[in-house]
């Protein structure tokens, strides 16, 4: 009996791989949606997601063209490739929607998020929190004798990593803005 040869991209499966080979892959996509800046548009876009059972991992919205009265909605969502295509098609058919861009497939994109962390602690935990904040380039925006509030910007993964390190040091509260994203290049 010959040994099982598995290479990257191979369709051979290990006897220890318990994943269902027929299961569909769940992907995370960042969508940028340019819409009319008028009452009810955000509710309609969100209604599309909730009405069909699609999840929103992150949502940001702000006016980007004051004279043209346009806003940009950045949505991070997950689903199978077919579900993502459905979401994009349904968004594109909505009347107040002018453009839908999938920043995940359109090419390289820059994603950033802002977060505030309240960390309570004394003694060594307080010193360690300050040391880690310096490593992560987080700013102290408020300080009392019992706690700090840190401000940090970066990728969602960087924010998650900072949160995990702060939990044992006394993380009490966290607020996140959600992802803001732009395609790179011209």
From TrEMBL:
Amino-acid biosynthesis recorded as keyword: yes
PROSITE patterns hit by this protein: ACT
InterPro entries: Acetalactate_synth_ssu, Acetolactate_synth/TF_NikR_C, Acetolactate_synth_ssu_C, ACT-like_dom_sf, ACT_dom, AHAS_ACT, AHAS_small-like_ACT
Entry keyword rRNA-binding: no
Reaction it catalyzes: 2 pyruvate + H(+) = (2S)-2-acetolactate + CO2
Annotated Pfam families: ACT_AHAS_ss (PF22629), ALS_ss_C (PF10369)
The protein's role, per its UniProt record: Catalyzes the conversion of 2 pyruvate molecules into acetolactate in the first common step of the biosynthetic pathway of the branched-amino acids such as leucine, isoleucine, and valine.
Name of this protein: Acetolactate synthase small subunit
Organism, as annotated: Fertoeibacter niger
Gene for this chain: ilvN
């Amino acid at each position: 009996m010959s040994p099982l040869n598995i290479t990257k991209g191979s369709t051979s499966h290990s006897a220890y791989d318990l994943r269902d080979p027929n299961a569909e892959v769940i992907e995370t996509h960042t969508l940028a949606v340019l819409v009319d800046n008028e009452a009810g548009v955000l509710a309609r876009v969100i209604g599309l997601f909730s009405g069909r059972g699609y999840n929103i991992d992150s949502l940001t919205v702000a006016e980007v063209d004051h004279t043209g009265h346009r806003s940009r909605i950045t949505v991070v969502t997950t689903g199978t490739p077919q579900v993502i295509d459905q979401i994009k098609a349904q968004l594109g058919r909505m009347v107040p929607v002018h453009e839908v861009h999938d920043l995940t497939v359109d090419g390289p994109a820059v994603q950033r998020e802002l977060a505030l962390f309240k960390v309570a602690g004394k003694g060594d935990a307080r010193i360690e929190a300050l040391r880690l904040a310096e490593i992560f380039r987080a700013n102290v925006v408020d300080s009392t004798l019992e706690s700090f509030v840190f401000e940090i910007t970066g990728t969602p993964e960087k924010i998650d990593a900072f949160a995990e390190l702060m939990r044992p040091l006394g993380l009490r509260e966290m607020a996140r803005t959600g992802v803001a994203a732009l395609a790179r290049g011209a």
